[in-house]
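User: I'm putting together a teaching handout on how sequence relates to shape, and I'd like one worked example. Could you take DUF3891 family protein from Planifilum fulgidum, show the sequence you're using, and then write out its predicted structure as tokens right after it?

Assistant: Happy to. First the sequence, then the structure tokens directly below it.
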Amino acid sequence: MIVRKQGDRFVLFRQHDHALVSADFALKLKEIGRFHPSAVYAIAMHDVGWRLLDREVLWNEEEDRPYSFMDYPLGPKLPAYKAGIDRVAAEDAYAGCLCSMHYASFFEGVSDPAAVRFREEELERQERLKAGMKSEERDGLNRDLRLLKFCDHLSLFVCLNEPGQNRFPWFREGMDYFGRRLLPVWESPRQLRFSPNPFREPFTVTIPYRVVNAAREPEEEGQLSIDVVC
């Protein structure tokens, strides 16, 4: 779950919904044609393992707020990561390898035994998947992983910031797009552009959300729509 605090309420976005919006961003990039065709599938499906976890809000009793994807307990989270990668890899080996690389990168330098084991198993999976690829596909994996992470950040920017604001620390200085620094600029609370503009045309992204209050009661459900302008 992606969690944005809003006064005494919490705005919640399901991870898989956010990933689908990541793919919406990818499809509108001017340069999308230079990436592997399976990259967009990987972007759209990279958080599919969260679907079961996000059916319910898991409450962080110590912090008195919902757990977010950033601090969700590893016990249920790691098997969900693995199941999601399994699903993607069964459909598309290249996309599965990208998702595996994405998740393995979260645990570089960690000491938790379960996280270390997860990373080691994913590195082994990547080698198996690469063995069935053409050399030019293997050469393109790191490029396409950067695309996945960039589009992931575009969607996270929309979810983690109040419309019209850029306060979440990850994005205050912009985002890296293959060596170029892209700055998000709000034209209004519902209109967003990036400078320099990486997109070929204006489009709208829409993501469902729900709101719970501090008493853990559901308050609202709706759709957040943002117009991306060029």
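A couple of points you could highlight for students: The longest strand covers residues 203-213. Strands lie at 2-6, 9-13, 59-60, 65-66, 175-177, 180-188, 191-195, 203-213, 218-228.
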